[in-house]
Write a structure and sequence with these properties.
By secondary structure, this protein is α+β, with helices and mostly antiparallel strands. It has a single domain, classed as Gamma Fibrinogen, Chain A, domain 1. It is about 40% helix and about 20% strand. The chain contains three helices and eight strands; from the N terminus they run αββββαββαββ. Strands 1, 2, 3, 4, 5, 6, 7 and 8 form an eight-stranded antiparallel β-sheet that branches. The radius of gyration is 33 Å and the shape is globular. One of its GO terms (cellular component) is fibrinogen complex. InterPro entries: FIB_ANG-like, Fibrinogen-like_C, Fibrinogen_a/b/g_C_1, Fibrinogen_a/b/g_C_dom. This is Putative ficolin. One of its GO terms (biological process) is positive regulation of heterotypic cell-cell adhesion.
Length: about 240
């Protein structure tokens, strides 16, 4: 009887030790899993912080570009206004380094792009204003992006041999141009009147082909001044 009791006690003791060992193993595995999860979370957090920083930097860069374009137009208006007062407008004297802030309702503003390459595409729609066959300034449906639905754009065919896509047009003050980031990204206004074409579309147009940017100011008598920038491109958002 004593031997059986001792054997029974030994067996129970071994089983208990075994249970404790299994419990310890299970706890260790859970701790390791928790550690791995924490490490993964840390990596994801760092990646998210990096992406957020890059996004904010790019947003600031494009916002600055918008402000520079608006500032350039306003300053060209000031210089043109001063020249008009002196009755000596000469477009060759106006450049991007002569500028200071001002605004004048007696001038029409146009910001235009022209493609400096000749990329042709078989289509019922012109793929750029330079390919528009009538060579008459106005609103057209253009297939600016391959395999996508044509979009409305305003082609300027009289300035500097034509072929210009107007990306901003201001002439009567009917549209407020002091907008938020989303509006400048997507575009606003109507091609038949005052409008801004949209940074996203301009980015897609300029990322693969060389373009020239022209900012033009015209008074009510048909006289104009301008600034021109070769190799114009807008980065991605």
């Amino acid at each position: 009887m004593t031997k059986m009791t001792q054997k029974y006690k030994v067996i129970i003791w071994i089983l208990v030790i075994g249970d404790i060992s299994l419990a310890q193993t299970s706890s260790s595995e859970k701790i390791m899993e928790a550690d791995d999860s924490c490490k993964t979370c840390d990596v994801l957090v760092r990646k998210m912080e990096y992406l957020e920083t890059k996004f904010l930097e790019q947003q600031l860069e494009l916002k600055t570009l918008i402000e520079q374009i608006m500032h350039t137009q306003d300053n060209l208006v000031k210089i043109a206004n001063e020249k008009m007062e002196k009755r000596e407008i000469d477009p060759t004297e106006i450049n991007s380094t002569d500028l200071q802030e001002h605004s004048c309702p007696d001038y029409q503003h146009q910001v235009m792009l022209t493609d400096s390459t000749n990329a042709l595409e078989q289509s019922n729609y012109a793929t750029s204003c330079s390919e528009e066959s009538t060579k008459v300034s106005g609103k057209y449906s253009l297939r600016l992006f391959p395999n996508e639905t044509p979009i409305h754009g305003y082609c300027e065919q009289e300035t500097a041999k034509g072929g210009w896509l107007v990306i901003q047009r201001r002439f009567d003050g009917s549209v407020d141009f002091y907008r938020n980031w989303t509006d400048y990204r997507d575009g606003f206004g109507d091609v038949d009147g005052e409008f801004w074409f949209g940074l996203e579309k301009v980015h897609r147009l300029t990322r693969n082909r060389n373009h020239v940017l022209m900012i033009e100011l015209e008074d009510l008598k048909g006289k104009f001044v301008y600034a021109q920038y070769d190799g114009f491109e807008i980065g991605s958002e």
